Amino acid sequence: GKKEEEEEEGEKTLRSPICCIMGHVDTGKTKLLDCIRRTNVQEGEAGGITQQIGATYIPADNIRERTKELKADAKLNVPGLLVIDTPGHESFKNLRSRGSGLCDIAILVVDIMHGLEPQTIESLNLLRMRNTEFIVALNKVDRLYGWKVCRNAPIGKAMKLQSRDVQLEFEHRLTQIITQFKEQGINTELYSKNKERGETYSIVPTSAISGEGIPEMLLLLVQWAQKTMVEKLTYSNEIQCTVLEVKVIEGLGTTIDVVLVNGVLHEGDEIVVCGFQGPIHTTIRSLLTPHPMKELRVKGAYIHHKEIKAAQGIKITGQNLEHAVAGTALYVVGPDDDVEEIKESVMDDMRNVMSRIDKSGEGVYVQASTLGSLEALLEFLKTPVVSIPVSGIGIGPVHKKDVMKASVMLEKKKEYATILAFDVKVTPEARELADDIGVKIFIADIIYHLFDQFKAYIDNLKEEKKREAAEDAVFPCVLQIMPNCVFNKKDPIILGVDVIEGILKIGTPICIPQRDFIDIGRISSIENNHKPVDYAKKGQKVAIKITGSNAEEQQKMFGRHFEMEDELVSHISRNSIDILKANYRDELTNEEWKLVVKLKHLFKIQ
Ligand code: GDP
User: Fold this and answer.
1) Neighbours of 452 (CB within 10 A)
2) What is the ipTM of this complex?
3) Which of 114, 298, 393, 462 is deepest in the core (most CB within 10 A)?
4) What is the value of pTM for the model shown?
5) Ligand 1 center–CA 31 separation, angstroms
6) How would you classify the pairing of strands 100-101 and 96-97?
7) CA-closest candidate to residue 577, choices 545, 549, 553, 602
8) Of 360, 587, 598, 391, the residue nearest 478 (C-alpha)
9) How far is the centre of ligand 1, averaged over its atoms, from the C-alpha of 311 (Å)?
10) 502-518 burial, b if ≥16 CB within 10 A, otherwise e?
11) Which residues are CB-contacts of 12 (< 8 A; sequence separation ≥ 6)?
């Protein structure tokens, strides 16, 4: 049989590597994808390129054709290359199958004019974390001043045709970028000079607009993949399949878009996928791919397949798929398999995520597009610097029911009546309900931005509370009246004082413990060297004005109700201490807190 032949030759059948495009915003990821797919040229899906679900398939023949000018004798063992259609690192993060990354190889796009940018570094970290091979596309070379366009030419050839100035500018920028990579602990080298593939990553200069360098990039991708990951790319019958997206399609009901990484799927296969409310056990009703002829691509025009072999992007229809969770693995139940066992393992990822919900029941509500992105977000919220508790989670668009769930916090902790929506839409009804009942929704497609928004909101709330509390907050101080410094004996009392302990602030109510704790009014102004100030610290000598807040206080007089030797002290209470603790914990020194405790005893506060 065929299999034996292969074994005799010592060659294994390889599947197509799966490739993902990553990089900072505006570096040209989308344009580069267009360029690879040739959607920017007249002939459309030319040379056997097929549009799949969520991915584009470039057959090896097409790559051979496009790289023939390189005379590299492109020895390609893989059937082709499968490029994921949604560029960006979020999709890379989400696409997992059995714990490891779905992508075999990535193109990391860097703008030659900008060098490494924040999301380039984020992408790099992800690639490192997942141990994913990549090549760097140093894009927008056509923007070098004086660049002569050589449409779709190999970059080696195009570079030779450039002026000395262009070549020098290129060299200069390349060197800088190699240094930037080195600062991130990554060795890179221009592809043509790179002899240590695997240790040193290759940089291919490209233009996604005029197509220079695309031949080298394609060849390198495939060669690198088939050279460094034979094991991983060896075709196997064991199903490896990831759910990319869950979509309702008119006439088909809820469908799941999957990438089949390995194995063969058949119509009628019994499958198990992770569901938000438990494992989903169903059968494949149909296996669909888009119609290759654009004109025929009217709504619902899909090709039905009896079976499909990896690697492929496929749409699957079947019953009960409504609650399927994007970003999780799809399992096929074989004749000898124990369904219950598969149901267990399918929910592993989900349990892992569930375990991150705060046990106290207090926290924000978190909504993300896939399980992978939800995990990433939860992980981030857990880090010590961020430390935001989570009380509930959801996947997919934010609906009214999610707002209802988040609103439970309105009673418990208002600031947690918040939905952090990561890379998902909010339905208009949900938005309306949230506005009505006071649930906050923050939306972002970068995790950090969500955090920034939430933090700004919390800080704002804190400020507001502080302003509300300011009236009732009483800072601790002990004042000594200075000799010959009584400027006005009765309301408003004006005195020169020595701050012997604590901190003196405007608004502080003052009383005299030695005289039955009589209240004489609040500090209405403070002057230091004839200049008005808001506060005075221990050791300072200042002039103060004390204004009575009521008729009784306004009666109090120096010389009749109190004397030179009496200490003036902040009149604190249980409530004022609580407010200080809640809002000003960090603003008081240890010594000042000790004074609070001392005054607490003095006033016999429990
Ligand atoms: P993405 O955000 O990374 O997907 O970037 P896009 O593909 O949307 O490109 C961002 C902008 O850069 C667009 O205006 C593109 O036309 C432009 N652009 C992308 N690649 C190139 C290139 O190679 N050369 C030049 N001159 N412009 C490019």
Assistant:
1) 13
2) 0.99
3) 393
4) 0.67
5) 6
6) antiparallel
7) 602
8) 598
9) 29
10) bbbbbebbbbbbeeeeb
11) 6, 230, 234, 235
Q: Answer whether 143 contacts ligand 1 (Cβ < 6 A).
A: yes
Q: What is the dihedral of CA 23, 25, 30, 33, to 10 degrees?
A: -10
Q: Which residues contact 26 (CB under 8 A, 6 or more apart)?
A: 111
For ligand 1, atom 6, name the residue with the nearest CA.
Answer: 28
> pLDDT of 460-486, one tens digit each?
888 887 777 777 789 999 999 999 899
Q: Which residues pair with 508 in a beta bridge?
A: none
Region of residue 295 (left: phi > 0; alpha: psi -120 to 50; beta: else): alpha
CA distances from 389 to 218, 264, 394, 407, 453 (A): 45, 42, 15, 15, 16
Pair of tokens at residue 112: 């030659």
Q: Which atom of ligand 1 is nearest to the CA of 25?
A: 2
- In terms of Cα–Cα distance, which of 578, 372, 339 is closest to 474? 578
Give the chain's end-to-end CA distance (angstroms, integer): 90
- Find the 394 Cα to ligand 1 centroid distance in Å: 34
**Closest ligand 1 atom, CA of 34?**
7
Structure tokens at 536: 């005075």
Across the strands, what pairs with 313?
259
Task: Give the per-residue pLDDT at 294.
Answer: 54
In angstroms, what CA-CA distances link 148 with 34, 384, 487?
Answer: 22, 52, 85
